[in-house]
Amino acid sequence: MQSVLSSNKGSLMNIEDQLSLYKAFHFHHKNVEIHMVCIPLIAFTLVVLLSDFKVSEYPYLNLGTLLSLSYGAYYIALHKVVGSIASVGIAFFVVSSKWLYENFESSTVAKVAGTVHVLGWLAQFYGHAVYEKRRPALIDNLLQPVVLAPYFVVFECLFSMGYFKELEHKMGVTAKKMKDADLKAAREKST
User: Fold this and answer.
1) Which of 68, 94, 153, 163 has its CA 20 to 30 A from that of 51?
2) Beta partners for residue 54, in sequence order
3) Does 156 have pLDDT greater than 50?
4) Degrees, nearest 5: CA angle 124-14-182
């Protein structure tokens, strides 16, 4: 049975809906801190791992770049300013990936990136189990949290610097309602 949260996807093109849905799974500050560290590592290592799969002879045309372009385009469509900021980080991932493969053995790059990638995921699962005491968002819907997680980190950084306070407040209120409804539905299901 789907949870209230997984059935409430909101508008895919509405930043408040998307951030609220993701926030509904991330309230405990220690879990958010784990995500703030691990999500960029996971995103970077995913680009690194996919960058070894070339789709043409052009040096930057690989699966990592294609994924990065799609993320950047979606983020800009959701919010032009923040999407542009996120895209700079994404571009850094692409350029860094190319540099790694040019300066180290491919197998070494892949082993290190793969290890960091897996450890990042394990740390996030730990954060959800220990601090949130509930499942991560990706259990209900794999695609949405995987795409939104890096963007959520960018917004959390901007919120911590005092930007977009109204959006942060609306997101928090909506996310709390979503979380409460989800917990209520889970309790009712178990009785």
Assistant:
1) 153
2) 62
3) yes
4) 50
